[in-house]
Amino acid sequence: MLKVRSPFDKLAGCYHLARFTDKIRLHLAGALPEDYQLPLFHRRGVDGFFLNHFGLSKEELLAAVTASQNDADVAAWFDSRIGPDDQKKSSWNEFSVNLGKPGQPMHETLAWAKKKYNSQCDDPSIDSVFLSIEWDEGRIPR
After folding, report:
1. What is the pTM of this model?
2. Are 100 and 128 in contact (CB under 8 A)?
3. What Cα–Cα distance (Å) separates residue 126 from each residue in 14, 30, 97, 104?
4. What is the distance between the alpha carbons of residues 31 and 95, in angstroms, rounded to a whole number?
5. Could you read off the pLDDT of 83-142 as tens digits, one per residue?
6. What DSSP line would sit under 28-72, residue for residue?
7. What is the domain partition of the chain in residue ranges?
8. SS3 at position 61
9. d(CA 25, CA 4)
10. CA separation, residue 123 to residues 3, 131, 139 (Å)
11. Measured over all CA atoms, what is the biggest interatomic distance in the chain, rounded to whole angstroms?
12. Bridge partner residues of 15 (DSSP)
């Protein structure tokens, strides 16, 4: 089974794209775990914020991953699709790591997810969606 990478792993210079690609590949293979199915492409989740930030549609990203042989193909498609805008990538990377923090998008969602998905995580240092994912998937010690 394909491992789902950390949201901090970059592909084409962007946080979350490597993880998103992994989730899509698992989805296409019919092997995406149930807990990952509802958030896949959800407009108010990280996937939705990613698509919106870069002006991408679910359908075009699905098609690009389907047509790809590897991460290099996805990165090449992504760079050709969004153009040479490194500022757009930088602003995404700065925005995405703050998702879930107080005053940021997904703050209420994070509080809910920490109770539902994260084995009742009550650690106050887990204050962003990315850190919550890391904790939930065992990359941050509990």
Report:
1. 0.93
2. yes
3. 21, 31, 12, 15
4. 30
5. 877 999 999 999 999 999 999 999 998 888 777 765 677 788 889 999 999 988 889 887
6. HTT---HHHHTTTT-TTSHHHHHHHHHT--HHHHHHHHHH-SSHH
7. 1-97, 100-142
8. helix
9. 10
10. 25, 11, 15
11. 42
12. 10
Closest CA to 137 of 111, 110, 119, 125: 119
SS3 27: helix
At residue 124, the 3 state secondary structure works out as coil
CB 128 within 8 A of CB 93: no
Which tokens in the block code for residue 30?
A: 């019919």
- Strands (DSSP E) contained in the chain are 10-11, 14-15
End-to-end CA distance of the chain: 25
Q: Report the C-alpha gap between 109 and 119 in whole angstroms.
A: 15
* DSSP character at residue 2: P
Take residue 108 and report the two structure tokens written for it.
């209420």
C-alpha 105/C-alpha 129 separation (Å) is: 10
Residue pointed to by tokens 């108010």: 44
CB 92 within 8 Å of CB 53: yes
